[in-house]
Amino acid sequence: MAEDTIFSKVVRGEIPADVVHQDDLVTAFRDIQPLAPTHILIVPNRAIPTLADVSEDDEAVLGRMLRVAADLAADEGVAGNGYRVMINCRNHGGQEVYHLHLHLLGGRPLGPMLMR
Fold it and tell me: What domains are there in the chain, each with its CATH number?
């Protein structure tokens, strides 16, 4: 079983968050330290520690995460000009919370993927 995380507590409603979407598979909420005008985190309701821990059984939740990201981009008004969807994996990938999460970022030009 995955470790109980701050994101698990958000999913269960134990920690207040600006939740913008929740269904039986995923929960989406605004990042408390946004890096862009739109910065939403989309997490599976069942904690999966990293992208490397995903199994075939998780394919439906991963697809749902991407579908919700596209829908929220449209709802937030960033779909037309474009947005970024990003998943960090483990230490070198910049993952800070070990509960798989997708960042939806938009609302301004985001620049290159990596700084040189």
Answer: 1-37+84-101 (3.30.428.10)
Q: Which of 86, 6, 100 has the alpha carbon at shortest distance from 48?
A: 100
58: nearest Cα among 104, 31, 22, 66: 66
Would you say the C-alpha torsion 1, 89, 53, 86 has a positive or negative sign?
positive
**Distance of alpha carbon 66 from alpha carbon 107, whole angstroms:** 18
Count helices and strands in the chain by DSSP H and E runs:
2, 5
DSSP element (H, E) containing 9: helix 6-11
Catalytically annotated residues: 101
- pLDDT (tens digit per residue) in 33-83: 999 999 999 999 999 999 999 999 999 999 999 999 999 999 999 999 999
